[in-house]
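I'd like us to work through together how a protein chain folds, taking it slowly. To get us started, please write out a protein record for me. Label the sequence line and the structure token line clearly, so we can match residues to local backbone shapes. Once you have written the record down, we can walk along the chain together.
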Amino acid sequence: MQTTTPPRSKTGLTRRSRAALVGTGIAVTATVMAVPLVTTRSDGKAPHVGLVIPEGWRTGQIYAAIDKALGVPPGSARKSLPKAHLKLPRDAQGNPEGYLFPASYPLQKGASPESVLRYMVDTANERFGGGTITAGAQRHALTGYQAVTIASIVQAEAAAKADMAKVARVVFNRLERGMPLQMDSTLNYALKRSTLHTSVRDTKIASPYNSYRSVGLPPTPISNPGEDAMRATLNPAPGNWLYFVTVKPGDTRFTASYEEQQRNVAEFNRLRAAR
């Protein structure tokens, strides 16, 4: 997480952590779970595993993967949303981002895009809608949808599973202080890209997902998180960190000091220039 803006002292909500330094983001390939889709085969044989969704993928990537796995024309999954009647939170306003649960899905003959989407959302509701998750969200004064939104940021920003709880703490600390999150992952979502390189010009775009300018959480999740990211969101590590940056693989540094963050960022830039 890289920043050019010192912390503000007032309290409030926020958004940000410069992903340009942190993240594997969309490239995270998580451990996936096999879940049965629709029905089992009548001959007792294992169904064909035709769809693998890694943790951190966005809806656009998932729609394309569904279309390819089912052998249907591009755009079919997206167009099937109105017919799928997905059981989404009211706050989602029909947008399944964050609720297309990452897993390995066996596809049965005759499966349709809407049946696949329904099963993925039902799986997310099962994983994210239980009593433990709900109690955890309430403990942090969050709705379930807000918890999924934070988990999606944690998923995109954390360079490793071990960093997730610390990234979550940075998000909460910034929210509590009224600091913008300044997360490159949310900016990348607005720009429909995934990159570690963010320019000053990028940070000035007009978008509710531009967490360099907007305070608080983005209006929707920015990816589809897995259970590790949700677990980290509901159980953030104790700490006063406000910044983080992955200087090099395996070396993510968290700090509460703006000056120390700038030194870490300078080291990141030196290493990047030397590649």
